[in-house]
Amino acid sequence: MMGGLVILHLYPRLMNLYGDRGNVLCLVERCRRRGIASEVRAVEVGQRLDLTDVDILFMGGGQDKEQQLAAQDMEGEKGGLLRAAVEDGLAVLAICGGYQLLGHYYRPASRPEMKGVSVLDVTTLHKGSQTSRCIGNVVAQWEGKTLVGFENHGGLTYLGPEAKPLARVVIGYGNNGQDKGEGAQYLNAFGTYLHGSFLPKNPHFADHLLRLALERRYGHASLEPLDDDLEMTAHGAAVARARGDRRWTNRALSWLKG
Amino acid sequence: MKAKQRLAILCGKMAGMASRLAGGGGTTLPGWVAQAIHPSLVSYLVSRIPQGVTLVTGTNGKTTTSRLLATILSDVHFIPIYNRAGSNLMRGIATALVSQAHLDGHFRQPNQIVGLFEVDEATLPRAIRETQPKVVVATNLFRDQLDRYGELDSLAQSWSQAFKELPQGATLVLNGDDPLLAHLGHRISIPIIYYGLETEGMGTLEHAADSIRCPTCGNDFQYSAIFYGHLGHYCCRVCGTARPLPQVRAFHLCRHGIQGYTMELGLPGGGMVVELGLPGLYNVYNAAAAAAAAAALGIPHHHIQNGLKKATAAFGRLETLSVQGRRICLILAKNPVGFNEALRIVDSDKEARHLLLVLNDRIADGRDVSWIWDVDFETLLPHGASIVVSGLRAEDMAIRLKYAVPEIGLPRVKKNLREALYSTLEATSLGDTIYIIPTYTAMLEVRAALVNMGYVSHPLMEEG
Ligand SMILES: [Zn+2]
């Protein structure tokens, strides 16, 4: 029996768009299967954030209005605490709107700019309500493996020199549809546009997060392998589905070009 | 102009015939063709319906509510012209009108016909402009297919704008238990009939609940009862925003398992006892919505009572079939709130042992399957059921269950729907009930498969 981990879900009720809580369920269950105790804490707007014994911080996506509330809330004490903890090696996973708030700012199409906490050296812009959203199945390369998920974002994210892309887009738009980057990373903090939920279909990345968290707390991490046949079959099915989308799009494009 | 209308109707009808000859259903092609020739054809044709048009919209329940209202209207000997389930864009409405109109743009029995159209949430503003409805019913706003509709707030905003363009004398029928809809009602000056439930609710919000913050001031609502998703009795302790008192209310609910409910319905000017042959709390809402719309149209109470009693499940929302001495219950679920309610229906059958979940990710289902992680499988999955998963994203559903209830063991994954049906049937004995919960396109496939496999002799067409 290994010592436990504390997972903090930031704004679970506010930023609860489209199943992102599956990521927390996944981390908890993968700990349980290995006999690692885990505790999930929730912090909402206006509640105090205490990161002293937190191992993994998770934040999901939300609608613009909710994201605005979260941004305002993080401008206070929370932002500073989060920056310090990331410098100290805290493992962070933020999806979509949560990812955008880890950057410097998000400029939506018709709402005022939201300030981010500058954990990641990224900025996000919306090119106006006339431009179409980035929607669809995504396949990306990460450390010789693939990551799969579903993206649905209007904002385009651009990386500065301090952040490096989390993965390289094979199918889909990723950060901005131009530079093939998907997500961003700085130390042990990760942002991505991938819903799905992301972790259950990418168990290798879930374990990567757990390993980082265990190493930080206990100095070492030995994660026994789990039976991930079903997870990897789902992963493969998602890749196949994304390829199908692409074939369809290509066919439509060639038809349009005559 | 006159010739153009005639041409549009003629070509629409011909397109419908051609499509039926080619084996298609012809559900939207006639409207598409007719509108291409004459873009304002819908406005023109509805102006020929003296009894006017009713529109029904909302995330969940538009089909069932429309069908309930149609049964009530038929009881008064009205002849509703309605679009087919799922064909709820403008071209679906145009198709319904074109197929019923004569070439000169007149309708048979013009004094008895009424327009009754279910309308896609995003199409509502355009439908209001083009049909100038007498009554608009909004059932609820849940998060559904964000890849198609965008975010709830922007949808609500476009509705708010559209409601301001309603014609003089129009009535809005709103679910007052939905804070987002009630908030829209607060800001409009036309007559509104609110409907709602008055019974015991659940203690906690489902994970799928969305608009749980006060739209006026942004603080969390306090709920004294929660019925379905974020629908319930809510109030804001900060600014005082609260659920409006409904003019149409369902109370004294007595549930008879999957058979449905006996309940009382309070209406302006009196109450009645209603036998509703549809299970699920959401169908109580649908019945209240239909009754409120009927009241807005001035329909006498006894017709409302009769109509609701006669109603049968609309287009697969809950359809029971007999297959080889087994009973198959089909319950459509296209979003987390609907799925939770489907699981509650299954759970109300204490004998429920056999479950087939079919998850597709086509455009009509929503291409993003993330929503299944918001379904409360953890608390709602019936214990001890044997489960088969199928569909284009069967594996996604399988891992969802694996992470929800690890101790139930892995569900059987049968991506091929026929194999899934065989496998499910194989595990049953005579007299068992099989519950199938499909997404939208999966439901169509299940029906087709049951016919192709020879389990059901008659084609399972939607009632016409
Ligand atoms: Zn308030």
Could you list some keywords that capture this structure?
heterodimer; A: about 260 residues; alpha/beta; Rossmann fold; 2 domains; 9-stranded mixed beta sheet; 4-stranded mixed beta sheet; 6 helices; 13 strands; globular; B: about 475 residues; UDP-N-acetylmuramoyl-L-alanine:D-glutamate ligase; Protein-Tyrosine Phosphatase, Chain A; 6-stranded mixed beta sheet; 16 helices; 17 strands; about 35% helix; disordered C terminus; binds zinc ion
Q: How would you describe this protein?
A:
The complex is a heterodimer of chains A (258) and B (464). With 258 residues, chain A is an alpha/beta fold. Chain A has two domains: 5-226, Rossmann fold (3-Layer(aba) Sandwich); 227-258. Helix content of chain A is 35%, strand content 30%. Chain A has six helices and 13 strands. The radius of gyration of chain A is 18 Å and the shape is globular. Chain B has 464 residues and is of the alpha/beta class. Chain B has two domains: 3-310, Mur-like, catalytic domain (UDP-N-acetylmuramoyl-L-alanine:D-glutamate ligase), CATH 3.40.1190.10; 318-452, Protein-Tyrosine Phosphatase, Chain A. Chain B is built from 16 helices and 17 strands. In chain B, the strands form three sheets. In chain B, strands 2-3-1-4-5-6-9-10-11 form a nine-stranded mixed beta sheet, with helices on both faces. In chain B, helix 14 (394-404) links the parallel strand 15 and strand 16 (412-413). In chain B, helix 4 crosses helix 10 (281-296), helix 6 (124-131) runs parallel beside helix 8 and helix 10 (281-296) packs antiparallel against helix 11. Chain B is globular. In chain B, 53% of the residues are buried. The model of chain B is unreliable at 459-464 (pLDDT under 50). Classes of the chains: A alpha/beta (258), B alpha/beta (464). Chain A binds chain B through residues 13, 16-22, 25-26, 29, 32-33, 63-65, 69, 133, 135-137, 150, 152, 195-197, 200-201, 230-231, 233-234, 237-238, 241, and chain B through 143, 146-147, 150-153, 207, 210, 212, 218, 220, 361, 367-374, 392-396, 398-400, 402-404, 406, 410, 413. Zinc ion binds next to loops of chain B.
